[in-house]
Design a protein that fits this description.
With about 600 residues, the chain is mostly beta strands. It is built from 4 helices and 28 strands. It has helices at about 5-15, 310-315, 360-370, 570-590; strands at about 35-40, 60, 70, 80-85, 90-95, 105-110, 130, 155, 180, 200-205, 225-230, 250, 275, 300, 320-325, 345-350, 355, 380-385, 410-420, 445-450, 465-470, 475, 485, 500-505, 530-540, 545-550, 555-560, 560. The chain has a 14-stranded parallel beta sheet with strand order 1-2-4-6-7-8-9-10-11-12-13-14-15-16, with no helix packed on it. The protein is elongated. About 30% of the residues are buried.
Length: about 600
């Protein structure tokens, strides 16, 4: 018996004599089998061999010096079932190059430099079920190129330079199940180019230059289970483009230019398992996005502009295992969202501007309860508030998720008419109201309307007015308005009867103590004077304050001093009053201008 090493050497020599490349490792998958013939740069050829051993059914040409495949190159090898040309420099395939290969099932010409292929290159290959022309520099397809391939099931045309698909390019391929057209330069898809491919279940069009598809262009693909359109230039899709794809399981629309999708685009896709919408410009999701996807397992919404996930709350997805939401504009997660996904194993949330307040407490608790589910937990960081910027959400404690509230400022005004006795004419009346300062700046606006009555008249003013505080405005109107005077001041004066003065007083933060003074002239008579009560309440930074002031425009107050009608020297007092009245009238009369606004008497 020969030694083991000698026996192995003999086997290698025998294999080498058969035209086989020696196997240095019995477990190496590249080692040819007895029925395979392999030609490489170490066993180079410049043309197709004239014949092969009768036992050879598969032939491989890998990195050889072949540059063309001539007509009837394999006519003496009728038993071949597989031929592969891999990474050769083939530039030409002649018509009839594969004639007399009635048993051929698989043919590959990859990494070549073909440019184009003439019609008839693949004629008479009635048993061919797989044809691969990937990466062969093909710059166009001619109509009829694939005629006669009635049993073809897989066609690989990716990694070429095909700019368009002519009408009828795939006619005569009734059994085609896989069409790989990715990584070409296709810019448009005509409506009927796939019309005869009724058995197609995989269509790959990713990484082209497609800007859109027409309505009805996929209506014949009832058997389609995989559709990939990612890495194109698609901005929108027809609403009913996918309406007949009821068996679709995998859909990829990522890395396009979508800002929105039609609301009904996914209706009827009940068998969907994988949906990719990543790397678009989506701001919102269709309302019926997942309504009809009970079998969905993988959902990729990453790298969009989503700020809300409310549409995901509407329906439970019991089969969902992977959810990718990273790099959006999410600030919070709807409470209970992840509870609907009982099988969720992988979640990606990093790169969002999370607002770490009370609304994010649900996410924090869910991450704590499911520590292995968030695959990028270290990238889930707070973007606000300021004191938590950059903090990892999972590292915070529950008492750090705080929401602040502010109560709006409101004001209530009440006016009540009080009787008074007959007194000497009042010269002036003055009141002062001081508002407490707020703990934080705010802007106040008050509107007060007071009617000054003429003698022996009776009028009614509403007893309550409530409004939001904007810009302060004080309006005093009389029975016969003749003048409107506007001034930016914290005090105002009322002239003789028949004059209207409108004063706008902006009160801006911080709140000071504005002074409001009302001057009234009243003849000796019995009349009704208003008592105005103003109540202001607000809350700023959890602090409350309330204040009120009372302005009683009666003759009992003169220049801020209380006077008794029966005390003192009456003649002296009357003289003082008269002097003061005359001085006030002179000042008012000098300031009178032609009327610029006419106010209607509210009682008329």
């Amino acid at each position: 018996m020969l030694p083991t090493n000698a026996a192995l050497l003999l086997v290698l020599l025998l294999e080498s004599g058969k035209g086989q490349t020696p196997c240095h490792n019995a477990t190496d998958p590249s080692c040819p089998k007895p029925y395979q013939d392999v030609y490489t740069k170490t066993r180079d050829v410049t043309e197709i061999p004239k014949s092969a051993s009768p036992i050879i059914t598969e032939m491989f040409f890998v990195e050889t010096s072949l540059v063309e495949i001539k007509e009837k190159a394999f006519q003496n090898m009728p038993d071949l079932v597989k031929i592969d040309f891999i990474n050769n420099k083939i530039k030409t395939v002649e018509v009839g190059a594969f004639d007399n290969l009635g048993k051929l099932e698989e043919l590959e010409i990859s990494s070549a430099d073909l440019g184009s292929l003439p019609v008839g290159s693949f004629r008479n290959l009635s048993h061919l079920w797989k044809l691969s022309l990937r990466g062969s520099g093909i710059k166009g397809l001619e109509k009829g190129l694939f005629e006669g391939l009635g049993n073809l099931e897989q066609l690989y045309l990716h990694l070429n330079e095909i700019p368009s698909l002519p009408e009828g390019a795939f006619d005569g391929l009734p059994k085609l199940k896989l069409l790989h057209l990715a990584e070409n330069k296709i810019s448009s898809i005509s409506k009927d180019v796939f019309k005869q491919l009724t058995q197609l279940n995989t269509l790959r069009l990713y990484q082209n230059e497609i800007s859109g598809l027409t309505e009805g262009s996929l209506d014949s693909q009832h058997s389609l289970t995989e559709l990939s359109l990612r890495n194109n230039r698609i901005r929108t899709l027809p609403p009913n483009l996918l309406r007949n794809l009821t068996n679709l399981e995998k859909l990829s629309l990522g890395n396009n230019l979508f800002e929105a999708l039609p609301g009904e685009i996914f209706l009827g896709l009940r068998k969907m398992k994988q949906l990719e919408l990543a790397s678009n410009q989506l701001k919102v999701l269709p309302g019926q996005l997942l309504a009809e996807m009970p079998l969905l397992q993988d959902l990729d919404l990453s790298k969009n502009k989503l700020s809300s996930l409310e549409s995901l709350v509407l329906h439970p997805f019991p089969k969902l295992t992977t959810l990718k939401l990273q790099r959006n504009l999410l600030e919070s997660i709807p409470t209970g969202l992840f509870d609907k996904y009982g099988n969720l194993k992988s979640v990606y949330l990093g790169g969002n501007p999370w607002r770490c307040d009370c609304h994010l407490l649900y996410l924090h608790r869910w991450m704590k309860a499911n520590p292995k589910s968030v695959k990028d937990a270290a990238k889930v960081k707070c973007r606000s508030p300021d004191d938590l910027v950059g903090k990892v959400v999972k590292s915070l404690t529950e008492d750090q998720f705080i929401c602040f509230t502010t109560t709006p400022i409101s004001a209530t005004f009440e006016s009540t008419w009080l009787p008074r006795s007959t007194l000497p004419p009042a010269v002036t009346g003055g009141t002062t109201a001081t508002l407490p300062s707020a703990s934080k700046p705010f802007t106040t606006a008050v509107v007060i309307t007071t009617s000054v009555l003429e003698p022996t008249t009776s009028r009614t003013i509403p007893t309550s007015t409530e409004m939001m505080i904007t810009t302060p405005q004080i309006t005093t109107s009389t029975g016969s308005p003749t003048k409107t005077l506007k001034t930016m001041s914290s005090s105002s004066s009322t002239t003789a009867p028949g004059t209207t003065i409108t004063t706008t007083v902006p009160t801006e933060t911080p709140v000071t103590s504005p002074q409001i003074t009302t001057l009234t002239q009243s003849p000796t008579s019995t009349e009704t004077s208003p008592k105005t009560t103003i109540k202001i309440s607000s809350m700023v930074s959890k602090s409350k304050f309330a204040s009120s002031w009372t302005d009683t425009a009666t003759p009992d107050i003169i220049a801020g001093t209380s006077l008794a009608s029966t005390s003192g020297d009456s003649s002296t007092t009357a003289a003082q009053i008269f002097t003061t009245i005359m001085a006030g009238l002179a000042i008012v009369l000098r300031g009178l201008q032609p009327p610029v606004q006419h106010l209607r008497d509210p009682t008329n």
